[in-house]
Amino acid sequence: MQEKINMVAILVAVVVNFVWGFLWYTPIFGKAWGKEMGYDPNEKPDKSVLIKGMLFMVIGNFFFAWVLAHNMAAWSYVPDMDEMSKGGILFSTALFTWLGFYFPGELGATVWSKNSWKLFAINSGYHLSSLFIVAAILLFWP
Q1: Residue 91 lies in a domain
Q2: Domain count, the chain
């Protein structure tokens, strides 16, 4: 496990995660997500709202990757962690972070906001896949 925080890997993770978010919420699940959110498919968002949303997504992606890198580095101090394979570290990082931090929030939001379980699956699936992608970049980047 790499104990040093690699800023290049973090920046690459930000870009890749931004592209992944675009793909997930546009060609892959865009129509289903928009329908579940109650958006009119014929209404195009204002350009300034779109730019603001993308800017905040990049900022959020930076904090996501930066904090995850620090979290992964901190795990290197856990006894016997250096004996775990990189695949095990990747799986543990993504799954347990998702299960402990994303899944409960999405679950509560779905129930309290009366959102559909389809929306829950789309959003939760994005968070889990994003964790795997970013953790893989941070773990395997030279």
Answers
A1: yes
A2: 1
In a domain, 37, yes or no: yes
DSSP label at residue 75 = H
Distance between start and end Cα atoms, the chain = 12
Cα–Cα distance measured from residue 119 to residue 123, given in angstroms and rounded to the nearest whole number: 6
CA-based radius of gyration for the chain: 17
Residue 2 domain-assigned?
Answer: no
Range of the domain at 46: 7-140
pLDDT tens by residue, 102-111? 999 999 999 9
* Six token digits for residue 138: 């941070």
Enter the pTM of the model. 0.92
Q: How far apart are CA 109 and CA 114, in angstroms?
A: 8
Q: Assign 3 a pLDDT band (cuts: 50, 70, 90).
A: low
Spatial separation of the C-alpha atoms in residues 35 and 69, rounded to whole Å: 34
Structural domain contains residue 104: yes
